[in-house]
# Entry
Amino acid sequence: MEGEAVAAVIKVLVQNLIDHSKKEISLVRGLEKDAAKLAGSLDTIQQLLNDAESRTIPGGAVKSWLRKLEDVAFDADNVLDELNYHLLSKQIKSIKPMKEKLLKSKKSNENLEYIRKEGAELGLKERLANDVPKLPHAAFETDSFSHDPIFIGRDELVSEIVEVINTRITTDERIISIIAIVGMGGLGQTTLTRNVFHHPKIKTHFGSHIWVHVSQIFDSITLFKKILKCLISTDKVEVESRADIMKKLLEALKDKIYLLILDDIWNQDRPKWDDFINSLVGVTSTKRNAIVITTRNMEVASTVQSLHTHELKGLSHEDCWSIIKAKTFGKVDIPLEFEAIGRKIATRWQGSSNNTEGGSRVRYMIHDEESRITKEVAKYLRTLLFEGHIYRNKFVDFERLHTLVLADDWCTKLPSSIRKLIHLRKLDISSTSINYLPDWNWIGELHQMQTINANLRGLELPSALKYLINLRHLYIDSFAKLPAEIGSLTSLQTLEYFRVGDKNGWKIKEIGSLNDLKGKLKIFSLEKVENKEEAEKASQSNKSKLLKLHLSWNMYGGGDTPNDKNVLEGLQPHSNLKKLAIEGFNGKKFPSWTQKMAVENVPQGCWVPLNKLIEIKLYECSKCEEIPMFGHLPNLKSLWLEGLTNLKFINSSFYGLVNEETHIVFLALEKLVLHNMPNLAEWAEVESPCATDVTVFPNLQHLQISWCKQLTSFPNQSESCLKSLVVRETGSMPLTCIFKTKLKLLIELCIERIYGLEYLPNWLFYNNPNLLELTIRRCSNLRELPDGLGTLNSLEMLSISDCPNLERIANIGAQHSQGSLTCLQRMKIYECEALLYFPWEMVGSLLEVLEFENLS
# Structure
């Protein structure tokens, strides 16, 4: 397999040369003939490579030829890169053609022609790619059976995802619930999902377990055949038409509740997904089935409309080191010098698998100041992670670097030798102490730069930054000082923070040209935008790839800001938005698009609901008198309302447009927080012709109401999925309303500063055997805790403090309570002067922390 592997690596490089050579060489005057000649040589070499790739055991001469080809192709790639730099430079300023580059390109042509002839003399044949015999596709597929001997740092996450799946299928009446696991390649989505797939609780809940590897080609018929093959246990599905396949699937899935894993999905084509999922729903005869998809792209999770999306993060430093240690040394003792190096690697590359650029030359290196890199090695390096003291001329020999990561806490100034690195694509200075980039013109000459990671607090960026016309990702701290005319960087895809200024070059129109922005964007200092017309210059409605938008006014800027409503009107986002935060807005009412949670499509004369929103936060909107409509948003999972200090009523419009066909509002809402709303007094019920049939918050799991002292009500719920309930500094009435719904799934209960509360209902503890944490603080009139407390055999933490009138805790007979709190690990009781007795017989043997203070 060695020849195949080496050839495959080089094919990537050669294909890259083919993709760029014609454009980059032909655009330089005097190289038109060279471009044509190079294209011909590369096409022939690629066909020879197809033959070399098919030879699983190549001769020594072919191996040698492959190595020579790699070196020549690498040099040619650098020449093309220099020509591309030359072309980018011409876009900034007029320069004369470089004679040196012309000579280099001719030399590359000569070398490639020599390699082509040598390959032909070795007997390698010109083969088109589709003539090359392929290994079976299954050899590259994932499956559910592979053993993962090293699985570290993800056990809790497996349990969390299993819990999400189980909760969905036990509380949701959908035919299919979709869960997405998202993470960059190498983070271990497949391994994680395989452990979920084999979890005992998953095996118990589902009758059928199906694993399908998808990859880059998303074809419904192919997927249906794979599913069918898993269900009917045959090597070959003898059907041809789609209708035949669906008929057999209908039969195979009859009365079955199934879990389907779709591993490694790349598809972002919504119609393709809809075609697949609608057909699958059509042949599914049961409810409460689940699909788990794994993907590298958050946009895929959006395409499949997942009910729960888990974004996989990197592992901790210790877990990374444990994996490196296990894979490298097994159970053998590790020499100290190797451990130091291994821990450095773990620190820098937490959570991902780092592949070097293969071949005979070293392309990637982690380097510290104690080791030395020769000039011969340095000139071939593409990626360098440098740790240690950085001085001015440190990088003069690394002329072909594409990626440079600097890690030096003492480094306060960018070394000037970086100006020679014209091939540089990525520069990471986030692990230095640089707080100012001088306004050197050469910074703007690194035209091929695509990514700058400068996540350093308060960093001041130079004005020459605007000349990096190829820059796509700029990672900065929220306090960084951007240069003027950031709007010149029209290729930008990542810019997470923008602070509006008073002067030209810093006004909001600068982000108007950045329509390729992805991910998230927070816009500060919106009080400096004068009106709707100026706000519209930000072109927020054209940013279809922007998924998270945070709009912020300075609450402490002083003065009245009567234009807030008009400015917010002009910042209407694209309908693809998934997360919206509005902070410091000083209008009394929200503009139309915010009030309706829908954006206006002017050409078609209609409003498009923001149906992709999964999270909304409104905070410190201190003058707001009315909140928007939220209940109709089908995917809204989290709603956070904080600091709306002027709000007195939550009226029925909160639930959206409710009519006779409305049966559920806030369908997907899982988390609701109301915080610091001191004037909120009334929360209206749903109003509709058949209000009794409208279900509110059917999937609400986390509810927090705090510092809402005047609130006297909470909407009625026919059923409750609450797992976490936190009520602080609020009258006792909301809690009484919540308790009208029999809670059965509580895991966390926190009650604080409810001064009118005298007792808790006995059923509360009897009905919630899975309660893990119980916290009661500053309830001055609370007199007793009911006997049901002794039945909480899952309780791990009990904390009671500042309840001066509490006299009794679960006074039940010892014969019924012996060791009943079997899982209790931490118990703290403070400032309960009236408490005369505590039933110690309830406490089990797992208690680790016991704190009593100021009791009677």
Remarks:
- The longest strand covers residues 208-215.
- The two ends are 79 Å apart (CA to CA).
- The CA atoms of residues 825 and 846 lie 6 Å apart.
